Amino acid sequence: MRPSGRNLDEMRPISIETGVTKHAEGSCLIRCGDTHVLCTASIEERVPPFIKGSGLGWVTAEYGMLPRSTGSRMRREATAGKQGGRTVEIQRLIGRSLRAGTDRVAMGERQITVDCDVIQADGGTRCAAITGGWVALKLAVQKLIKAGELSHDPLEIPVAAVSCGIYAGQPVLDLDYPEDSEAGVDGNFVMTGEKMIEVQMSAEGSTFSRDQMDQLMGLAQKGVAELGRAQMEALG
């Protein structure tokens, strides 16, 4: 039995509310159970120097957790004068994932920055940030298309991510914090449609077999399909 009472292949309740901020070109609040992440997408008519003049667009991301997004208050990283290693790793993952699902030629030579701020954390924050980040990015791109600045949609297939792991000896889908903190194996799966973008898997004091990995992959495909439907419903 999972702590939440969910079935092994059952996702937490998912909701994606769009248009939650006034100024960003694209925004949404994604809720995956008790994990809530605010995602905003901002368009800039410039690109980093290393691709200037290439005709290619660029998608990047920033990620952060609010001080009381967890059970006890954490110190803002700004007060420490630098980002922690976990933060840097996650925002690079988000940027890589969103770029992998973007036709950067069709996007044109501009940059879109996706900011992902964790309001409340209960496991799977990076996966929720990727899933919600794609919705915010899509909304920003739709504004460019409506304004006649893009002739082709550079985001044709949704990008989403979900966590899977081995908890109490069983493969489970969409780990919340009680499961994530005790899982023998933990994995994050980023996908676009049926294709993989990135898989992060590690054993936490245990090992896993090829058969278990295949089971987790199957669970991830099911979860990402559900997330994709939620993304499309949110976009209308």
UniProtKB/TrEMBL annotation:
Gene3D superfamilies noted in UniProt: GHMP Kinase, N-terminal domain
Protein residues bound to phosphate: R86, G124, T125, R126
Superkingdom of source: Bacteria
UniProtKB keywords: Nucleotidyltransferase, RNA-binding, rRNA processing, Transferase, tRNA processing, tRNA-binding
Gene Ontology terms, MF aspect: 3'-5'-RNA exonuclease activity; tRNA binding; tRNA nucleotidyltransferase activity
PROSITE patterns in the record: RIBONUCLEASE_PH
Coiled coil: none
Domain Exoribonuclease phosphorolytic: 10-140, 158-223
GO terms, biological process: rRNA 3'-end processing; rRNA catabolic process; tRNA processing
Reactions mediated catalytically: tRNA(n+1) + phosphate = tRNA(n) + a ribonucleoside 5'-diphosphate
EC number(s) from the headed UniProt entry: 2.7.7.56
Cross-referenced InterPro entries: ExoRNase_PH_dom1, ExoRNase_PH_dom2, ExoRNase_PH_dom2_sf, PNPase/RNase_PH_dom_sf, Ribosomal_Su5_D2-typ_SF, RNase_PH, RNase_PH_bac-type, RNase_PH_CS
HAMAP family cross-referenced by the UniProt entry: RNase_PH (MF_00564)
Family: Belongs to the RNase PH family.
Quaternary context: Homohexameric ring arranged as a trimer of dimers.
Name of the protein this chain belongs to: Ribonuclease PH
Organism: Salibaculum griseiflavum
